[in-house]
Amino acid sequence: MITLDMVSKRYRTGSGDVAALEEVSMQVTEGEFVVVRGPSGSGKTTLLLITGGMLRVSSGSVLVNGEDVYRLPEGQRARFRADSIGFVFQMFHLIPYLNVLENVLLPAGAGNRDRDRTVALELLERFRLSERANHKPYELSAGESQRTAIARAMFSRPRLILADEPTGNLDPENAEEVIKYLAEYHREGGTVIVVTHGRVVDQYADRIMSLQNGRIVKEELR
Amino acid sequence: MSIPQLIIREIFHRKLNFVLGALAMITAVALFVSFFTTSEASNRETIRLTRDMGFNLRIIPRETDMEAFWATGFSDYYMPEDYVLRFAGHEDFSYAHLTATLHKKITWRGRVVILTGIAPEIEPSGRPKSPMSQIIEPGTVTVGFEPANALSLKQGDRVDILGRSLMVARTLPETGSDEDIRIYTRLEDAQEILQLQGRINEIKALNCLCLISDEDDPLDILRRQLNQVLPEAKVIMNRTIAVARERQRLMFERYFALIMPLVLVVCGVWIGTLAMMNVKDRKQEIGVLRALGYGSGKIAGLFLGKAVLLGLAGAVIGFYAGTLITLKYGPGIFKVTAGSIEPIYSLLLWSLLIAPAFAALSTFIPAMMAITQDPARTLREE
Question: Cβ contacts (< 8 Å) between A54 and chain B: which residues?
Answer without folding.
Answer: 290-291, 375-376, 379
